[in-house]
Amino acid sequence: MATIYDVARLAGVSPATVSRVFNGTTVTPQNERVVKEAAAELDFVPNRTARTLRLRSSDIIALVIPDIENPYFTALARGVEDEARAAGYSVVLCNTDDDMSRESGYLDVAVSEHMAGVIIAAASDRSDLSPLLDRNKAVVAVDRVPRGAAIDAVTVDNVAGGRAATTLLVERGYRRIACIAGPADVETSTRRIAGWSAALEAAGLPEDPTLLEHADYRVDGGYAALERLLAHDERPDAVFVANNLMSVGALRALRDAGIHPPAVGIASFGALPFSTSAPTGVSTVSLPARELGSAAARILLERIAGDRQEPRTVVLEAVPVV
Amino acid sequence: MATIYDVARLAGVSPATVSRVFNGTTVTPQNERVVKEAAAELDFVPNRTARTLRLRSSDIIALVIPDIENPYFTALARGVEDEARAAGYSVVLCNTDDDMSRESGYLDVAVSEHMAGVIIAAASDRSDLSPLLDRNKAVVAVDRVPRGAAIDAVTVDNVAGGRAATTLLVERGYRRIACIAGPADVETSTRRIAGWSAALEAAGLPEDPTLLEHADYRVDGGYAALERLLAHDERPDAVFVANNLMSVGALRALRDAGIHPPAVGIASFGALPFSTSAPTGVSTVSLPARELGSAAARILLERIAGDRQEPRTVVLEAVPVV
DNA sequence: CTGAAAGCGCTTACAG
DNA sequence: CTGAAAGCGCTTACAG
Question: Does the keyword DNA damage apply (chains A, B) (predicted)?
Fold first, then answer.
């Protein structure tokens, strides 16, 4: 591979001048031209590794997400990407599969590759961001915020959204409303449960703790959780499901049990991905996934540019779909 | 950030010895211990940028895909990831959004960052892989193969799959079967069309070229294409749709037109993502997305390890779901 | 097994 | 505006 030295020799200038041409600093138009010609001739691609080593910073942003197969996170990724690319950064996606050790491995990669910054939807409440924070790396939490981390964050209003979704069921006349929540160690789940409770209380309905099932935010988890609820002594007449994928699983479990909404009501936190029908009996609150990503990217870009103000949290609204 | 020199000083050895400890070459157990203690004490993370510059190769694999919001490609990504991680590589995802200039930018990044190899589902038949091939970078094409590139490839049998899907419609009694294909410059689309033709011919059905609609492999494209077919003078009684997302769009268009399968039959190349019902009238051929990814990764890893045999193409089967 | 030293390909403060 | 030179943090052939 051609280097800056090869280009310099062919163009009859010094390597410093070649470097300056590729970094937009002051060179004569004449030199700019000969350098560009020489570079084209040699098929020169600057070695970013060397540049990064020298500058101690690359123009790559890492987006760390827990589940690449969840369309919510890929939509969020699109939001990050659109914003980052417009500012000249490349985005690489790192999928942790909800595994804190994989997550920690990717954070080390981000440090070790001198990436410009990290946007992270943490695998757990207990995710440890200190490898990043200790080194003053720009970080923005999105969707989920690890406990106790004083960092910028962009989230949705999980309590209000959970409450709104549950209220849709109340308004449609359901009275015994269960909840399929996410993992106990994920902040978003805790808050969505709080929203469910608040809605029940506001409606004067009793909250039966045996109607709360925890699952894993995945399709199969939602399926199994709904089966457990169906086997309950006093079966619920409706279920608030705390994310999109578990709602898919819950609906499949209902179908396989021969039950069709609205016989049992379902309210989903997050729109059903790629749905082709509007099943009666299924209510949703819709999440601004792409906007979460673009808002997070904008904040990260400001931090990279040197912004030093206090960390802030941006909360976006979940919108009930009627 | 602590460097190898800081660790060496604290441990009372040379930087070379520290390097050897982290690269698994011969050191005394005693030295190994003091170096590891010193590294832990200093919170040392090796600088991969420097390592890559020196070795001219990193342990990162790039996976370049055209649409991160298509579950088919994210499933494929999971396959790549599982295989690559088991071999000690990290995978970063690059989303081209079907744009050849974005794709070309990412290929330059892969070269310029000295990534170990690239797995690519090309944006177009005309995608130019020469930046990679000219530099002997390990490359495997997956799902789609750019024209004329003599490289390893893992694909599905698009002709047989298209034929099988169309045949499912024939067997269910449909006689005027349209096709919603992908972009004209994408190889997979051309082949799936050929499968559609072959099935019609085998069934002795006439092929009406006005029943062939091209779209963009996206939800909205499938929606619009189905609307065009419905407006056709002699409306088709069934449609073979050449990918999963366009099938979602087509089904939504049918729903919005108040038509419910099996009034119009639909056969989808690729399972409907996250479907919650098994709509009668919708047939599918199912694609081994994850296996495509893992097979591609296995071949890439062999190439990285130095395999020099002739490029080969692995073709996996699309399986009709009855 | 271990260390001194060179070199991977850039960028930039400094001097001119 | 331009060039010579140092240095970013590693790895490894070489000599001991």
Answer: no
Contact (Cβ atoms closer than 8 angstroms) between residue A116 and residue A60: yes
- The CATH number given to whatever domain includes residue B276 is 3.40.50.2300
What is residue A279's predicted lDDT score, i.e. its pLDDT? 67
**Number of structural domains chain B divides into:** 3
Give me the residues near strand D, CB below 7 A. Answer: A 13-17, 20, 26-28, 30-31, 50, 53-54, 56; B 1, 3-5, 15-16, 19-20, 22-23, 44, 46-47, 50-51, 53-55
∠ CA A30-A32-A33, rounded to 5°: 65
A282-321 pLDDT, tens digit each: 999 999 999 999 999 999 999 998 888 999 999 999 998 8
Domain co-membership, A59 together with A127: yes
- Note the pLDDT tens digit of each residue in A206-249: 899 999 999 999 999 999 999 999 999 999 999 999 999 999 99
Residue B107 near residue B131 (C-beta atoms within 8 A): yes
Please give the residue of chain B at the shortest CA–CA distance from A251.
Answer: B276
Closest CA to B2 of B49, B40, B59: B40
B92, B104, B135: which to substitute to probe chain A, counting the most A Cβ within 10 Å?
A: B92
Residue A271 shares a structural domain with residue A208: yes
Check whether residue A174 and residue A121 sit in a common domain. no
Q: Are residues B220 and B270 in the same domain?
A: yes
- pLDDT tens profile A104-141: 989 998 999 999 999 999 999 999 999 999 888 999 99
d(CA B51, CA B23): 11
Q: Is B311 exposed, middle or buried (0-12, 13-18, 19+ CB in 10 A)?
A: middle
* DSSP 8-state code for residue B310: P
Q: Are residues B236 and B314 in the same domain?
A: no
Provide CB contacts within 8 A for A63, sequence distance 6+: A77, A80, A91, A92, A93, A94, A118, A119, A120, A293
B179-233 per-position pLDDT tens digit: 999 999 899 999 999 999 999 999 999 899 999 999 999 999 999 999 999 999 9
And the tokens for A63? 């987006």
Residues A68, A120 within the same domain: yes
CATH number at residue A24: 1.10.260.40
Distance between CA atoms of residues B192 and A158, nearest Å: 44
Q: Residue B46 corresponds to which amino acid?
A: P
Q: What is the mean pLDDT of chain A?
A: 93
Q: What is the percent of chain A where pLDDT is above 70?
A: 99
Note whether B102 and B217 are same-domain residues. no
Residue A249's H or E segment, with its range, is helix A244-256
In a shared domain, residues A176 and A280: yes
Low-confidence ranges of chain B (pLDDT < 70): 279
